[in-house]
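Annex B.
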Amino acid sequence: MTVLLDVVGAALVVAGALFFTAGTIGLLRFPDVRTQLHALTKADTLGLGLVLGGAALIAGSWATAGILLLVWLLALGAASASAHLLARREADAAASGAPGVAMPQPAASGVATSDPAGPDASVPDAPASGAAASHTSVPEGGD
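Monovalent cation/H(+) antiporter subunit G: predicted structure tokens.
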């Protein structure tokens, strides 16, 4: 019977690791903060539950299973609260027109940038003619 519990426990741990991987891929692939949070909180809390359930079966102790259940419940509460606060901050920032939570987005070159305006946002505008100005202005009366 213990061999069966160990095999089922190991299968639960592997399944939990797959859910963790799926949540991480969702975090990296989804375009906006809300879908990233959804992927992360849903997949990771289920993944943690599976990993802790597998660890409880492998441990074979009711006391250990109770402690791991408490850890999972606390993680569920923490993930829900943090996701809610981040989503609220992003929604408030979107409503006010200010940039919200700056999440790195992949650039065309494959290098991530955390500037929501883009990598060229701090470059001053070029003259309308397209040619660079060839003179500098000197303040009047300043010689």
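The chain has a mean pLDDT of 78. Residues 22 and 43 are 7 Å apart (CA to CA). Further annotation is deferred to the next reporting cycle.
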